[in-house]
Design a protein that fits this description.
Elements lengths: L3 H4 L26 H5 L2 H14 L6 H24 L36 E2 L8 E2 L1 H12 L3 E4 L6 H11 L10 H24 L14 H14 L4 E6 L4 H7 L5 H8 L21 E7 L2 E7 L9 H15 L9 E8 H6 L1 H9 L11 E6 L8 H4 L16 E5 L3 H18 L3 E6 L17 H9 L3 H11 L5 H23 L35 H12 L9 H16 L5 H14 L3 E6 L14 E2 L6 E2 L9 E6 L5 H13 L3 E6 L10 H8 L2 H5 L6 E5 L14 H7 L6 E3 L4 H13 L6 E5 L25 E2 L12 E5 L3 H12 L4 E6 L1 E3 L3 H10 L5 E9 L5 H14 L8 E5 L10 H16 L19
Parallel strand pairs: 4-6, 4-7, 7-8, 8-10, 9-10, 11-14, 11-15, 15-16, 16-18, 17-18, 20-21, 20-23, 23-24
Antiparallel strand pairs: 1-2, 3-9, 5-6, 12-13, 17-22, 19-21
Helix pairs in contact: 3-4, 4-5, 7-8, 7-17, 7-18, 8-15, 10-18, 11-22, 19-20, 19-21, 21-26, 22-23, 27-30, 28-29
């Protein structure tokens, strides 16, 4: 919701509560509504008296009061049009959505009848007039607010923003005017949009394309965004949209070569054959290009998207934020602009839309305003608006962030183009979101093979009779003398010939390169192989850097009064560096962040409560206890940039945002932290469609890190499991890295490894809770320096000769320490416990080597805290067996020790949790009390 420097109160002493947003209006503030000022009776009477004096007329008090009353009623009429005029606008091209003129938009409602309609009334400069008759007022107001453009903006609290919009909409001199060349350009763009869809329909009969048919006015309007954006300082636009009209935008706005799209329609790939990946349907693909208007070049990218409507929104905003940082544009937000294109049903129905609106003015997430363009087909698949929402417009959610909304009749391409021009100007001036709601129709069904008459027979009867946009607009231009029939015929035939030529060229088209490692990704590449070459990276740091970071993390500025508990935390940290022992999770993390920053990388951490840490462990931000000014130790380091943000209470939107940021900036370690791991459920669409599959579908690498607190500690079903099994089920084709780490130093190394390798893969970390302070989960100083590195498997804490190991317990995560403590308490000297710190890619080679060394091994057990149908068991069972065979232990298979299958991730009863935990530990170690009842299947499981 605007430039960040204006959105939040500065650090330091403040008036009012510390949580107050500077954009929130204050009661009794200095800014008064201009309408209230106009209704000031004293000012009105003075103006009327002055006017009368000039005319040398004497008015008695009764006449003055009557004149003031008429002025007040006239101003009320004006205000009502500003608030509700859009309700009488001519918006529906089909004429199906008809509305009666609201009574309060008539002059009679305000007492202007008969001769009073033509009596001059003082309006004090409103509409650019000092005096006007009520009849004249209504004529002007209806032209301004009730034509093909309806404006909603009086919900905006900022006076200057309202005045800006009024200045461009109100007055007898206000109309939508384009030059002759401009009108021809608009018509040409509409013809291209229509003929392109017709061409696809003829050449690829019955093939889904989700055409723009009926909404072609969007094509010249989006070109206006590029043209006028460039004139106002925009140098890059990032687009996001679903499938409706996407192919048209790719071709006619993004300038993706027609031959490439035709090649894809014929079943060809957009990328070379040797690149790999699964590919995706053509109406999900993205592209990037440069277009030039008036000598100004603007770079544009359309972000790939899945069929999950609106999922791309957060990704686009995150990418824009990263690009603004790259262009040093985070303060002004002038050079990089997001444009999101929505469907009407999705805009009203998908919660992610609001989540992304909620990010629009938040520190760390603002992009300086987004232009939202709604293709309002007045239908969602087969559902009419009256059954799909409880509001007159799909755009009403935008009022929550005080975004102005322009409702436009899609059969008037000049009006739609004007709206986009106005939107760009507003966004560039105020750095806030703005919405364009283009009312149009969908000429065919949901897809070109769908029959819409089943559910909307009246609408589609009207559509079959309705002329296309080009015909309506061409008739208008012919009547104006701008074009003739020859112009239309020539423009159409020239474009169709171009399409024919491109169609033939598409038959022999062959992609010669992929574009996924260009720009900021230069120097990065796919990993050479999944097992060996990817490990050749040094992640330890020099002792001098280690000591320097220790001083940064333990030095409190003189002007900072810290919380006494934080003081003890800092003192404990200082002792770690002095003794070289006892480094905990939070300190290891800070060392990783700090060392990467010192090496020139960026670090961006966001999530709910990430500054302090959900478990009060991180303390990345120190807050003064007297005036609440903030100090971020790692942000004082040179070379790179460290950022930590407490996000809005959103998972879906924020995770999409961070994925988008990481997709644009591979030089920044981007981490999203769930408050508890199970909260990732709320962002599952982003995980499934982007994090896990984005590289395979769209050749888009990404190095995003997910920190998901996970561990069974009796906190109930909602705060035990990050659903490890779901991430492992998504693993294939070397797409992810999934780790369940138990050693602070290993966490340090895996974070540094993420940035120091010459490729990027998403990293999923089952982050700890109790291990944050567990006395056994500590590291020594020498595990961060020298030749130390990330260990995919971690051997036992107890030294047991390999030839004496009879029973091996394999596990991952916190349960390792429960096993170790019980094993040592029982004095078992032939049971070894080995942790798999990385579950995918599975560490087959080091595990095989470890197994081969155990010459007298008799039994291998996999132990996990999660129920049998959850956790890692179903994923690791086969790879462990493969490793056993490779180690020469043919025929040996791992057995399972853990909880029974369960519909709920965990019990919410502390006593039952403790009993289950003790039983699974005993079972894994072969101790009494570990017996578990066999699982019996319900009769329904057998198909009964």
């Amino acid at each position: 919701m605007g430039n960040e420097s204006h959105d939040f109160l500065p650090d330091g002493p403040q008036q009012g509560p510390s949580w107050q947003n500077a954009r929130w209006p204050l009661v009794g503030g200095a800014d008064e509504d201009e309408f209230t000022q106009a209704l000031d009776p004293t000012a009105m009477q003075l103006a009327i008296k002055q006017s009368a004096a000039k005319a040398e007329k004497a008015l008695d008090e009764t006449a003055i009061a009557q004149a003031a009353d008429e002025s007040i009623r006239a101003m009320l009429l004006i205000r009502t049009y500003r608030v509700r005029g859009h309700l009488a606008a001519d918006l529906d091209p089909l004429g199906l959505s008809t509305r009666d003129l609201p009574a309060d938009l008539t002059p009679e409602y305000y007492g202007f009848v008969g001769a009073a309609l033509d009596k001059p009334v003082y309006v004090g400069g409103a509409l650019g007039l000092e005096w006007s008759t009520p009849r004249q007022l209504v004529q002007i107001l209806r032209a301004n607010y009730c034509g093909k453009v309806g404006l909603e903006y009086m919900h905006i609290s900022d006076v200057e923003e309202r005045r800006f919009l009024q200045d461009r909409m109100e007055g007898a001199d206000k109309s939508i005017d384009f030059t002759v060349l401009g009108k021809k350009a608009i018509l040409s763009a509409v013809i291209r949009g229509e003929q392109y869809e017709k061409f696809l329909g003829k050449k690829y009969v019955g093939t889904k394309r989700f055409g723009l048919d009926g909404g072609e006015s969007m094509i010249p309007a989006l070109e206006a965004v590029i043209k006028y954006g460039g004139q106002l300082g925009v140098r890059e636009i990032v687009y996001g949209m679903a499938h409706r009209g996407r192919l048209n935008v790719l071709a006619n706005v993004m300038a993706k070569p027609y031959r490439v799209i035709f090649h894809e329609f014929s079943g060809g790939s957009a990328n070379p054959d040797d690149v790999g990946g699964s590919g995706d349907v053509k109406y999900h693909l993205g592209t990037s290009t440069d277009r030039e208007f008036d000598g100004i070049s603007v770079h544009m990218s359309l972000v790939p998207n899945p069929s999950h409507l609106e999922t791309v929104d957060g990704v686009v905003l995150g990418k824009v934020r990263a690009q603004q940082a790259f262009h040093d544009d985070l303060d002004k937000h002038e050079q990089v602009m997001p444009v999101l294109i929505h469907g009407d049903a999705a805009f009203a129905g998908q919660g992610i839309v609001w989540e992304c609106f909620g990010l629009s003015g938040v520190r760390g997430y603002s992009t300086g305003g987004c232009i939202h363009f709604i293709i309002n087909n007045q239908i969602g698949f087969t559902t009419s608006p009256k059954f799909a929402r409880n509001s007159p417009y799909p755009s009403d959610v935008a009022k929550g962030v005080q975004a102005p909304i322009l409702h436009i009749n899609g059969d008037d391409p000049e009006a739609v183009t004007f709206a986009c021009k106005l939107a760009v100007e507003y966004r560039q001036m105020f750095k806030r979101d703005i919405v364009i709601d283009m009312w149009c129709y969908r000429r065919f069904g949901h897809n070109e093979g769908d029959e819409p008459g089943f559910t909307q027979p009246l609408m589609y009867d009207r559509i079959r009779q309705h002329p296309p946009v080009s015909a309506i607009y061409a008739d208008r231009l012919k009547a104006e003398g701008v074009i003739d029939d020859d112009y239309i015929a020539q423009t159409t035939s020239d474009f169709v010939k171009l399409l024919d030529d491109e169609f033939e060229a598409g038959k022999n088209y062959k992609a010669n390169e992929a574009d996924w490692f260009g720009g900021r990704w230069s120097g990065l590449h796919k990993p050479a192989d999944p097992e060996t070459a990817r490990r050749n990276v040094a992640t330890a740091i020099e002792p001098k850097l280690f000591e320097s970071l220790g001083r940064t993390l333990t030095t409190v500025p003189d002007d900072l009064t810290i919380h006494k508990t934080l003081g003890r935390v800092i003192e404990a940290k200082r002792k770690m560096f002095e003794d070289g022992e006892g480094f905990d999770w939070a300190t290891a993390e800070a060392l990783a962040f700090g060392s990467l920053t010192m090496e020139g990388f960026g670090v961006r951490l966001s999530g709910q409560d990430s500054g302090r840490g959900t478990f009060s462990q991180r303390h990345a931000i120190w807050i003064d206890q007297k005036d609440e000014h903030k100090y971020v130790p790692l942000a004082t380091l040179p070379h790179g940039k460290f950022e930590v943000y407490d996000s809005t209470l959103s998972e879906y939107g924020v995770l999409g945002f961070e994925y988008g940021f990481a997709s644009a900036d591979p030089k920044t370690l981007v981490l999203w932290e769930a408050q508890f791991g199970d909260f990732a459920n709320g962002a599952q669409i982003v995980i499934d469609q982007y994090v896990a599959a984005g590289e395979a579908k769209w050749l888009r690498a990404n190095g995003l890190v997910l920190l998901l607190p996970h561990g069974y500690e009796g906190q109930g079903p909602e705060h035990s499991s990050a659903r490890l099994e779901r991430f492992l089920q998504l693993c294939a084709d070397d797409n992810l890295q999934v780790c369940n780490i138990t050693v602070p130093a290993n966490y340090f190394h895996v974070l540094r490894r993420q940035m120091l390798r010459p490729f990027r893969k998403p990293l999923i970390i089952m982050a700890p809770k109790s291990l944050l302070r567990h006395p056994m989960a500590k590291s020594a100083a020498d595990e961060f320096v020298g030749d130390s590195h990330f260990r995919r498997i971690v051997s036992d804490t107890k030294t047991i000769p390999d030839d004496k190991i009879r029973r091996l317990v394999l596990c991952s995560g916190k349960v390792a320490y429960d096993l170790i403590e019980k094993r040592d308490a029982e004095g078992l000297d032939d049971v070894s416990i080995v942790r798999l710190e990385q579950l995918y890619p599975f560490p087959g080679k080091p595990l095989t080597e470890r197994l081969a060394a155990m010459t007298n091994l008799e039994e291998v057990v996999w132990c996990q805290e999660e129920p049998r149908n959850n956790g890692a068991w179903f994923f690791v069972e086969h790879p462990i067996e493969v490793a056993l065979n490779a180690a020469g232990k043919t025929g040996m298979r791992p057995s399972y020790a853990g909880r029974l299958p369960s519909a709920s991730p965990a019990t919410g009863l502390a006593k039952r949790h403790a009993q289950q935990q003790q039983a699974l530990v005993n079972h894994a170690l072969g101790l009494p009390g570990g017996e578990q009842p066999k699982h019996s299947f319900h009769p329904a499981d057998n198909g009964e």
